[in-house]
Each structure stands twice: as C-alpha cells, then as structure tokens.
Prior knowledge:
The protein is an alpha/beta fold. The chain has helices spanning 5-8, 12-15, 20-29, 47-56, 67-76, 113-123, 137-142, 144-148, 152-159, 163-172, 191-201, 212-228, and strands spanning 37-41, 59-64, 81-84, 98-104, 124-133, 176-184, 236-243. A 7-stranded mixed beta sheet has the order 3-2-1-4-5-7-6, with helices on both faces. β4, α6 and β5 (124-133) form a beta-alpha-beta unit. The radius of gyration is 18 Å and the shape is globular. The N and C termini lie far apart (38 Å). S-adenosylmethionine (SAM) binds next to α4.
Amino acid sequence: MNYDYNEISKIYxxxxxxxxxxxxxxxxxxxxxxxxxxxxxxxxxGNYLKLIHGLSKAEVWGIDSSSGMLAKAKEKCKNAVLVEExxxxxxxxxxxxxxxxxxVDVIHHIKDIDTMFKNIYRVLKPNAAVVxxxxxxxxxxxxxxxxxxxxxxxAELNRYQDTGEIKDMLIENSFHCISDGxxxxxxxEDYGTxxxxxxxxxxxxxxxxxxxxxxxxxxxxxxxxxxEHAIIYYxxxxxxxxxx
Length: 244
Ligand SMILES: C[S@@+](CC[C@H](N)C(=O)[O-])C[C@H]1O[C@@H](n2cnc3c(N)ncnc32)[C@H](O)[C@@H]1O
C-alpha cells in the first residue's frame, strides 16, 4: 500500500489545519518579522506558511514534491514562494538565504535525511536554526491512533526516526546547540468523531500502511468507546532543533 499526496490533497484541509501554538513557537524561536525569510520543507497545502506569514509578515518559501498539495497552498497563501521540489536536494533553493528552515510531519517521508541536512545547512544563514516537528517513538506509542488502530504501531515505529537518531544526524552535519522538546497543544474535544473522519478519508498517511479491515475494526472500536464516553485528545508536538 502507498500514499499519494496528490490524491490526498483533495481532502487534506478537511482533516488537518495549522496549529497556532506551533506557528507561534517558530516565530519566537527565530524572532521572525517582516525582515526575515523562512523555508518550510514539505509545506503541503500551506497551512503553516499562511499562519506564519499572517502573524509575522516574514517572507515565506515552501517546497513540496506534490503538485496537488502545492496547488492548494498557492490558493491559500498568495505571498509565498512555492517550489515543486524534492526535500533532499533542495535544488533551486538559494544558499545562505534563510533565517529559519522548518518541517512539520515530513521527515519520516524523507529517504536520504543526511543529504537533506547538508542542504538545509547550505541554505541557512550563519547562526540560523532548523526546527523539525516529528513524533518521537514514545509519543507514537501513546497516540490515540495507536490505541484504536494498533496495527499502525509497528509500521510507524519502522518509518519514523526517533529523536536521538535525528539529533545524531544533525551533529554529524555540523549543526550545534542541538535540543529537543515538546509543545503542549490545545486539547481536541470530540476527537473520536474527528478520528473516524480522518480514518475514513485516510487523511493520515499511516492509514495507507494498514489494511481496510484494520481501519474498519479501529472505527468500530472508536464507535464503541463513544457510546460510553467522550474521546478527548491532549496532543503534544515533539520537536528537535539545531543551529548552523
Ligand atoms: C503530512 S504532510 C505535512 C504538510 C505540512 N507540513 C503540514 O503540516 O500541514 C507531508 C508533506 O510532505 C510532502 N513530502 C513527502 N515527501 C517529500 C519529499 N521527499 N520532498 C518534498 N516533500 C515531500 C508531502 O507531499 C506532503 O505535502
């Protein structure tokens, strides 16, 4: 089974939105304002580019390998410079231009992280930061998606790099001041109903990794729990950062 982001671009914004606290963290981390320039790798439909530009007025660039996702980003974020490009080579992205490079829920899709980090280093200004939002293995084990769709666990642990591996790769690529942390995001009320919609639309790529039967069984588990009690999710956003 695979996951086609051109296909998923048609429903992506039904099931995902940019998170204000995450955008605010990035703006403060890189002191973004109208004089700064930011690159999002794997910008998808532009939810974070729109939030960050709207809040900080920074010049925003986004790259993504899916033309379908970028078409949505173009509609939403007219000010962004958008490039259809693979994250690894960052071809066509200028050297030493950016005050911040960030990625949200993308690094597990990248085949050659080492080369990508070399290129992120190339396009950053001196002393500028890279911030990678990605679920740690501990976080994956505790997600509600794992509770309701247990078949996702092995597949997710297999494709997600854990925090320590990413930190080591940043160090190997000359980044310094490496740190990690976790943002506490707003609780999501009525998560059960939302998760059923995401699963039915396969709005998370993990649903491309398990069988239709496993998805249906998970939806039935959620429905059974909803008969008994509300399902509220208390999400966090684990991140890793480094400085050029
Ligand atoms: C889960 S979405 C995240 C989108 C956006 N960062 C967000 O948080 O809404 C993953 C995105 O990564 C993009 N992507 C996956 N592999 C990529 C690659 N090798 N190069 C560039 N983009 C890639 C996909 O097309 C998709 O838009």
